[in-house]
Amino acid sequence: MKFLGIWPEERKFDRASSYRVLIPVSLMFLFMALPQTINLYFIWGDFNLIVDNLSVANLTVIIALTKITIFWFNGRSIQNLLALMANDRKEADTEEEIKKMMKIASISRTISIGSTVITNAVVVLWAMSRFLLMRQSGRRALFLLSSFPYESLTTPNFELTSVGQIVSAFCTATTYTVVDTFVAMLILHVCGQFSYLRQKISELGINDDVDFRKKLAKIVKKHDTLNKFADTIENKFNGMLLMQMLGCTIELCVLCFQALLSITEGSQELFVFQMCFLTLYISYILLQIFLYCYIGEKLASESSKLANAAYECKWYNMSAKEAKCLVLIIRRARSPLCITAGRFCSFNLQLFTKILKTSMGYLSVLYTMKSKNVE
């Protein structure tokens, strides 16, 4: 993330690191987003080329630019969340709690590394399939369907443009991945802290605890901190998540349609490379959508379980006045925390199935339109 210039920190005009983000943004915009969008004007009417333009990188780079912009502007807020995470680590007072936090960190790291490897593999397969296609046809062609204000197929313009597109593709893939995995890490941390909080609540009322009020005050304060933590994620990223949901729905549709075209009309010589690329690409999009839906479901589940923990603790060993204090936790936990797509819908496993159904519905429409055009 430091390489991309989006590591969470306070942005200042006199700090060089605040401007590092302009390098990947410029590459993605000048070599991918702008040329591909302009190219849509020239290929309008050719159904196959439009699908190819949208499916390979155009939608992906637009989503990546949205993510990197939102993440950069919210650097200070995200830095505060990291500070809270570091503070939680320092306050861990039992070996069991430390192990849980390390396990969550290990899971987050595995997700991050795995996602990065998959996205880079997608770019490599894409570049290889384009190179083999050029070699088979014997004609030069840009790696992406793009329109530039210069002759892009002559030397050295072609070589420089191709390198620029490949480098920008790796920047896009990395940006697309690191932001998603970072948000997932934040939410998984919150879920782990709710699990720890449930354990603390279950210990209330044991052995006629004389420090009940002190412990309850600490629990309530921690609960409030976690609620604010989750609300910050929701407030800062709900617009980005809306873009992610809509973009992934369209991407799934056009990528599956591209796969159908490859099966029915594609080159037999490059069929294996094209299908490997599209299969891995589609699988990655599905994994990213599922990741958000899973962590959204887990956040809602973990936050609402606090009410059950308060009800199941040894409240019958407390005085009536002390037991009534637990009502505050129960009432607050009745409203589960969630992450939303622009506040329109919450991310959960039900949304995942809806996205799949919607994408397949759009795919059916595209295939029908294609069949009518052929007729």
What does this structure look like?
By secondary structure, the protein is mainly α. It has one domain. The protein has helices at 22-43, 47-73, 75-91, 95-137, 157-202, 212-265, 271-312, 320-333, 349-374. Helix 1 packs antiparallel against helix 2, helix 2 (47-73) packs across helix 5 (157-202) and helix 6 (212-265) runs parallel beside helix 8 (320-333). The termini are far apart. It is found in: Cell membrane.
- Which class of secondary structure composition applies to the elements? mainly alpha
Q: How many structurally independent domains?
A: 1
> Could you state the order of secondary-structure elements as H and E?
HHHHHHHHH
Q: Please tell me how large the radius of gyration is.
A: 25 Å
* Beta-strand proportion: under 5%
Sequence stretches where pLDDT stays below 50 over 5 or more residues: none
How many E-type strands? 0
What do the pLDDT scores average to?
A: 84
Could you give a short account of the major beta sheet?
A: none
Distance between the termini: 50 Å
Count of helical segments?
9
Helix percentage: over 70%
Tell me, what's the shape? elongated
Family: Belongs to the insect chemoreceptor superfamily. Heteromeric odorant receptor channel (TC 1.A.69) family.
Transmembrane segments: 21-44, 56-75, 110-133, 166-191, 241-264, 270-295
GO molecular function, one term: olfactory receptor activity
Protein name: Odorant receptor
